[in-house]
Write a structure and sequence with these properties.
Length: 151
């Protein structure tokens, strides 16, 4: 039985160790019947974290950008690609002794390819409480069209 499980074990590429550990955890949760336990290992090195959702008319991209001002952001749309770049500056306290320093400071860039064509002229951006929300309208060609049946 154990041998059979190892034969079914997925092939890991071992790219990002934290991502791979999360993948192994999800696999074990699935095997043990505990999928969606709610615990996730954060993906180190990916900033900003984003969610991309889709409605009938728009793609909605939300990026976590705590401590980043709107003036420090550069958002570019090219074809179906969105690139968010900028800089987060966290001034270290020269009088403090750090026991843990996980918040990073510096330049970042995140590029995403959207699943369909977009209308770049109508993209709207809003930064509220450290969350950047991009409302990206789908192009007319990409929107679903209801076909009426004749007869």
């Amino acid at each position: 039985m154990i041998t059979r499980r190892f034969l079914d074990f997925p092939d890991f590429g071992w790219k990002n160790p934290f991502e791979e550990m999360d993948r192994v955890r999800r696999y074990l949760d699935q095997v043990l019947g505990q999928a969606d336990a709610g615990y996730r290992i954060p993906q180190a090195g990916v900033f900003p974290l984003v969610n991309l959702t889709e409605t009938k008319e728009n793609y909605i991209l939300r990026a976590e950008l705590p401590g980043v001002n709107a003036e420090a952001l550069d958002i570019q749309a090219t074809g179906r690609n969105i690139n968010i770049s900028g800089q987060r500056t966290i001034e270290p306290d020269p009088n403090a002794r750090y026991h843990r320093r996980e918040r990073e400071s510096g330049r970042f860039s995140r590029a995403l390819t959207l699943p369909g064509d977009i209308d770049r002229e109508k993209i709207e951006a809003q930064l509220t409480n450290g969350v950047l929300t991009l409302t990206i309208p789908k192009s007319e060609k990409a929107r679903p069209k209801q076909i009426q049946i004749k007869g």
